[in-house]
Write a structure and sequence with these properties.
Radius of gyration: 28 Å
Order of helices and strands: EEHHEEHHHHHEEEE
Helix content: 25-40%
Shape: extended
Number of strands: 8
Length: 251
């Protein structure tokens, strides 16, 4: 069989005891022949079966709470609020008893990974909550915890500002790819606002639009159908486009 190494895991039964008579109980694991240490095994057949791995199922609420406890995030009084927040911000949705990440959630995590900014991990939050416990126990001062938290997050904020192009390109891949099918035969009403921003695909102008067959709101290129770039916005009852530029970048 060449240099390949094969492993098997199971149970070697030396005495079945009452199971010889009471056949309704079953062993919890697969049974193996009674091999001794150093014994040789010569297979009679060698089969290659085609198969594929499957992704683990989405986390249920109880699974998520367990993992948050293990990671040191939240308390019994705040965990429910954390779970509600990720849903309100559109990072994940609850379908039945399981949580599924949204396109926005996946896009942000991918962008943070590309920028090597650990804001998507649990470590920063867990560290801060551990320090809060020390404040409650009198081992650290509130001022020291706030100062360290501001310092750490300011560092990542500055790095994010320097990586805006990378972040934008990563997010664009997600939202453009997720909307390809929709923009292929997109039917929408006329622009509902003045130009919102420049189009990253053609350099034209993106404006706020609504789909004719629904209340979905998105940014669509004014050069449609020549340019089908679009960015769908989170569901909201109302929105307002301000006529003043961004105070930071003046665009």
């Amino acid at each position: 069989w060449g240099p390949e190494t094969f492993r098997a895991r199971g149970l070697i039964v030396t005495d079945r005891n009452y199971l010889t008579i009471w056949t309704y109980d079953k062993w919890g694991t697969a049974e193996l022949p009674p091999y001794q240490l150093g014994a040789e095994f010569v297979p009679t057949t060698f089969l290659i079966r085609e198969g594929k791995t499957e992704a683990p199922p989405p986390l249920s609420e109880s699974d998520l709470i367990t993992k948050m406890h293990e990671a040191g995030i939240g308390t019994d009084a705040t965990i429910a609020q954390h779970i509600e927040t990720i849903q309100k911000r559109g990072y994940a949705t609850k379908q039945g008893s399981n949580f599924n990440p949204t396109t926005l959630g996946l896009a942000l995590i991918t962008a943070y990974r590309e920028m090597t900014i650990p804001l998507y991990t649990h470590h920063l939050r867990a560290q801060m909550e551990a320090q809060l416990v020390k404040v409650a126990q009198g081992e650290m001062s509130k001022e020291a915890v706030v100062k360290e938290a501001v310092s750490v997050h300011s560092q990542w904020y500055e790095k994010m500002k320097q990586s805006l192009v990378l972040m934008h390109s990563t997010l664009s891949k997600f939202f453009t790819a997720s909307n390809e099918a929709a923009t292929a035969d997109l039917s929408f009403s006329n622009a509902t606002s003045a130009p919102f921003c420049s189009c990253s695909s053609c350099g034209g102008e993106l404006s706020v639009r609504k789909k004719k067959d629904s209340n979905e709101v998105f940014l669509g290129c004014k050069r449609y159908p020549t340019c089908k770039n679009s960015i769908f916005l989170p569901s909201t009852e109302s929105f307002t486009v301000l006529d003043r530029p961004c105070p930071r970048c003046q665009t």
